[in-house]
TrEMBL record:
Gene3D superfamilies, per database record: yst0336 like domain (1.10.3560.10)
Superkingdom of the organism of origin: Eukaryota
PANTHER family per record: PROTEIN PBDC1
Keyword Secreted: no
Major place of residence: cytoplasm
Provenance organism: Hortaea werneckii
GO cellular component: cytoplasm
Limits of the Polysaccharide biosynthesis domain: 21-139
Keywords on record: Cytoplasm
Family named by the database record: Belongs to the PBDC1 family.
Pfam families reported in the protein's UniProt record: PBDC1
Regions annotated as coiled coil: none
Protein name: Protein PBDC1 homolog
């Protein structure tokens, strides 16, 4: 994906950080976290559908990450290592034309037993959030974790 402006292509390595955009992003992330947690508190995770493609995402996640321990705390260093990024990039990019905002940043609970918090949340890409949370919600302990 390339960035463009009315003046032409934008080099992300040379782009300025715009404080107002960062603030708007932070507001959206907090709204998403708050909404998702409120839903988890009101309905069993096993009844939750995050997208129209939950089943496909789940099967793809299981095939690409067969040893992923859904009950464990996410190892952020492993997830964001060179090898981890490559595995996730391949997974994420397959949803480019299928899921809106598939590569937008969001927050992910680091452990299914925890509520969102400063030390219990990690920055992730939307498809990582969908894949991990969909898998968590269909796991046998889903209704007890939320």
């Amino acid at each position: 994906m390339s960035l463009t402006s009315p003046a032409g292509p934008i080099d992300p390595n040379q782009a300025d950080n715009f404080e107002e955009i960062e603030k708007q992003f932070a507001v959206k992330v907090v709204e998403h976290m708050t909404t998702y947690w409120a839903i988890l508190e009101k309905m069993p995770g096993s009844k939750l559908r995050l997208t129209k493609m939950d089943d496909e995402i789940l099967e793809h996640f299981k095939s690409e990450f067969p040893d992923y321990d859904l009950k464990a705390t996410i190892n952020e260093d492993e997830m964001k290592s060179k090898e981890g990024k490559e595995r996730w990039r391949n997974f994420i990019n397959s949803y480019e034309k299928k899921i809106e905002d598939y590569n937008f940043g969001t927050m992910l609970r680091s452990n299914p037993s925890f509520e969102y918090g400063e030390k219990e949340s990690i920055f992730a890409v939307r498809m990582q959030f969908y894949a991990i949370e969909i898998a968590r919600q269909v796991s046998p302990a889903a209704d007890n974790a939320s």
